[in-house]
Predict the 3D structure of the following.
Amino acid sequence: MKRACHIALVILVLGGAVLQSLSAAVMSSSNYKIQSDSINLGGGLSTSTSYTQESTFGEVATGESSSASYKIKAGYQQMQEVYLAITAAADVTLSPSLNGLTAGTSTGSTAVTVTTDSPAGYELYIKASSSPALSSSSDSFANYTPAGADPDFSFTITSTVSEFGFSPEGTDIAQEYQDNGSACNTGSSDTDNSCWNALTTTNELIATKSSGNHPSGTAITVEFRAENGSSHTQTAGAYSATTTLTLLAL
C-alpha cells in the first residue's frame, strides 16, 4: 500500500517590479519610515468627480536622470519605486512513498530567492489552498499539531495518526522559526530540519527582512514532511497539496 505525496507550489508577488539602484529612508523611528521628503512653495491635492490631481510648485532639479551606473528620479512627484522579485518555486514530490500499514516518513523541499530594494524590506507568507492541506480523493493527512503555541523543534506525532507539516529555512526566517538548538521562537539559530508547523489556509509569515537586499537577494527554503504513525492505517492513493507563497514589500 503506497502513498505518493506531491506538493504544487503557487507564487503570488504583490508589489512593483522596476529597476532601482539606490534608496534610503530620510526619516524614521520605531514606528515609521519616510522614504522621501519635499520642500516646496505650493501645490496640493485637487479633485473633482472626474479626476484627482496632486501638484507641487517650487522644487528644483526635478526629473529623471540616468547613466550606465545609476538612475535618479528627483522630486516629490517622482518618488521611489520599489523593485520586488521572487524566483519560481519548483513543485515538490515527497520521498520515499509511504506504506500506510507501517510507520514511515516522507520529505521534500523547494527554494526561492527573494529580492527587493525597499528600504523597509519585505515579508514572505505561505498558506495552503485547503484544510487538511495534504489529501487524496478518499483520505488525508491531518495538519501538523505542535505541542504548544510555538512550532515544534522536532517533528513529533503519536502512533495513531498521520500528519503533514512544513518548516522554513534561511537567514531571513521569521523569529517564530528561529531556535536555540532545542526550542523554537527563541534564540537566533536556524537548525536544519527544525521548527515544524501546520500548513493551513491562513497566511503564515515565514521570512522577513527590515531592509533591502538588492541585488543579491535572499534564499528561503521550505521543507515539507508527511509522517504515518505505527498504529495508523493510511488509505492508499496519490496525495497532493497546493500552497501559495505571497511576497510583500514593506
